[in-house]
Amino acid sequence: MEKHFLPQLFRTRLYMRFKVPFCGPGGVGKTSLAKRLIGEGFSPKERITVGVTHFVKKVPVENGDLTFTIWDIGGEERFRFLAPLFLRGARMVVYVFDVSRYETFVEIDEWRRVVEDAVGRVPGILVGNKIDGVRVVDSGEAEGYAKTHGLEYVETSASTGVGVDKLLEKMIQLSINAEKG
Fold it and tell me: How many domains, in total, are found in the chain?
């Protein structure tokens, strides 16, 4: 596994943990994306997340490990009341929408409100997933939204793995920036 360079600030710390909720509407691929990040393959038969599921991704760095605990929060409306409980302690958040379903992009506003009510403003990444299919959400519109709301933006395909490494790099960069504080 590739080791990532971290600035001088991190050379005295051996282990850093970051709680990273994956938020967004149901069926956008949050679970599949999280599984790709931890090195599991894609399953087209993935079921909806009931409540929350978590995954752990360790990234080797110069003097230890950077550990992301990914909390995959069920996106169905019936589970949304649970979200504030699972958001506590989040150091950053990943908002995921499906580029082939415009309504999932619109729902990101509601997820941002849920997150900000629970933990305030934390660094975030907006992810346009399912880029291997028919696109309805224009990448320029999504990039503009991200910029307006102070989010990083990346596009991915959980099914093919495209963009997943870029998402991980952005997560690493946000964690570095958060520690510099």
Answer: 1
